[in-house]
Structures are given as structure tokens and as C-alpha cells.
Write a structure and sequence with these properties.
13 helices, binds protoporphyrin IX containing FE
């Protein structure tokens, strides 16, 4: 075996190990953090009024928060537009990415293909806007810390390498799919020998390791916010509200 083949085999093995480690850390970290939210006692009803009076109404309110960010809309229209476009583009990209992980490919992934052409660019631009905003406005500059910049840079680099792969240095998608399906079916094979794909993939693994332990977890935490997910009835009953117990 030549030195380059041996080094490639070593690299592939480490990458595959890292992929499984990142997947376990992501799933375990999410379960640990979200269970922590569930187990946190909420001794007093603290729903934000005006509030819906039923559980179904509270669920609709949370769904509204997730889909249209109404509080942000009231507070800052420019930030709302940037944040909403950022999340919508990310959703489009990730839904389209299902084609690399699933067989057969779900219809929604195929249906989004025409708009996904633009979603990558829009997402990259939204990352740049949100990054610029943190630096350009005195108040956000003062409030921003390293984690805020880190998350945007990481996502921006993932988008950048993805766009380069799609429009400039094409990767053979059949090899990509064989690699991801190999990982998912626990029969891993070597990744495509394509530097940009390897960087894109390594950055995604870094994101998976970082996600559950960072402020990006707002994506899950939003469902556990007691001021938003409690119906007004809880307040009226004046009962001690202890959340779910295990
Ligand atoms: C947070 C996770 C991810 C983000 C934000 C992301 C972002 C992007 C973007 C913006 C593009 C260019 C536009 C597009 O094709 O949609 C892209 C392309 C690509 N991504 Fe990702 N990606 C992610 C995860 C992954 C993962 C886990 C894989 C592993 C298979 C992957 C493989 C690819 C490939 C192969 C392309 C090129 C597509 C083509 O040539 O048509 N991405 N990615």
C-alpha cells in the first residue's frame, strides 16, 4: 500500500469515527438539554398576557412564534426581515439536502429544487447581513460576544463551501449519497475524495457538536418557553405548575 493510500485510509477512518461521534453528541446533547427544560419546575403560572385560554390555543401561539417571529417583528423590522429570510432559506436548503440522505427522495425535496438554486445565495447573504449588523450598530456591537460571531461564521462557511461545490467545483453526487447512506446504514465507506466536500462535511460535524451546547439551541428551546406555552387557564386556576415529572 502506498503512503498516500495509507494516509487516505487513515483520514477516512477518522472522519467516519468523527461523524458517528458528532451524531451521538448531537442526539445525546439535544436529549439532555431538552429533558433539562422539561424537568425544570415552574412553580408559578407565568404566561404572557393576552394569552390563549386553551392548550390548543397555546400550541397555535407557539407555532406562530416558530413560523413568523411576531415579537421580533414588533421590536425591529429590519432584523426581523433578515432573521426570517435566514431561517426560511436554511429550511429550504436542509429540506433539499434530504436528497443526499434518503432513498427514495421525498417529494418536498424534489419540489424545492427550483427555489433551492437561490436559497444557498440568499442564506449566505443573510449570514453576511446578520454578521454586519452585529458589528455596525453600536448597541448590538456592545451586546455581541464571541459565540454570536462564531455561529454566523460557521454557518456562513458551510453555505460558502456548499455554493462553491454546487456552482464551481462539482462533487459527484452519487459518491456523496453512497457515503451518507453508508453512514446511516452502519456500513460506512470512504468519503468522496473532494476537498470542498470534505471541508463542508467537517464544518457540519463541528456544527452538530456545537449546536446542543450553544445558543443555537433556541431552535428547540422555543417550544419550552413557559411564558408562551402556558394557556391563560393555568393562571386563572392559580395552581402550582410543576411541569412534567420523571
Ligand atoms: C447545517 C447543515 C448544512 C448546510 C447549512 C448546508 C448548506 C449548503 C448550501 C447553501 C449548499 C449550496 C446550495 C444547495 O445545493 O442547496 C450546499 C450544497 C451541498 N451540500 Fe450542504 N449543507 C449542510 C449539510 C450538508 C451535509 C450534512 C452534507 C452531506 C452529505 C452536505 C452536502 C452537500 C453537497 C454534496 C452539496 C452540493 C450540491 C450540488 O452539487 O448540487 N451538506 N450545502
Amino acid at each position: 500500500m502506498s503512503t498516500s493510500t495509507a494516509l487516505w485510509t487513515l483520514f477516512s477512518t477518522i472522519l467516519i469515527g468523527l461523524a458517528y461521534f458528532a451524531a451521538l453528541a448531537f442526539a445525546g446533547g439535544l436529549a439532555w438539554r431538552l429533558t433539562g427544560y422539561l424537568r425544570t419546575p415552574m412553580p408559578w403560572p407565568i404566561t404572557q398576557t393576552p394569552a390563549p385560554t386553551s392548550d390548543a390555543g397555546a400550541a397555535v401561539r407557539v407555532a406562530g412564534d416558530v413560523l413568523i417571529f411576531p415579537a421580533l417583528f414588533k421590536a425591529d423590522k429590519a432584523l426581523w426581515a433578515g432573521a426570517w429570510i435566514f431561517h426560511a432559506a436554511l429550511f429550504t436548503i436542509l429540506t433539499r439536502h434530504l436528497r443526499y440522505f434518503t432513498y427514495p427522495v421525498p417529494g418536498i425535496s424534489l419540489a424545492l429544487s427550483p427555489v433551492a438554486l437561490w436559497a444557498g445565495y440568499i442564506f449566505g447573504l443573510a449570514c453576511l447581513y446578520l454578521f454586519w449588523r452585529r458589528l455596525a450598530l453600536p448597541r448590538t456591537l456592545y451586546l455581541s460576544g464571541l459565540p454570536d460571531y462564531f455561529a454566523l461564521v460557521l454557518l456562513g462557511l458551510i453555505a460558502g463551501t456548499g455554493i462553491l461545490m454546487k456552482y464551481w467545483a462539482h462533487v459527484y453526487l452519487v459518491d456523496v449519497k453512497a457515503f451518507t447512506l453508508g453512514l446511516l446504514t452502519l456500513r460506512p465507506i470512504a468519503p468522496p475524495e473532494h476537498p470542498l466536500f470534505l471541508v463542508h462535511f467537517l464544518l457540519v460535524l463541528a456544527l452538530m457538536l456545537y449546536f446542543p451546547f450553544s445558543k443555537l439551541l433556541h431552535a428547540g428551546g422555543i417550544f419550552f418557553s413557559p411564558t408562551r406555552n402556558q394557556p391563560y387557564e393555568v393562571q386563572k386556576r392559580g395552581k402550582r405548575y410543576v411541569g412534567i415529572r420523571y
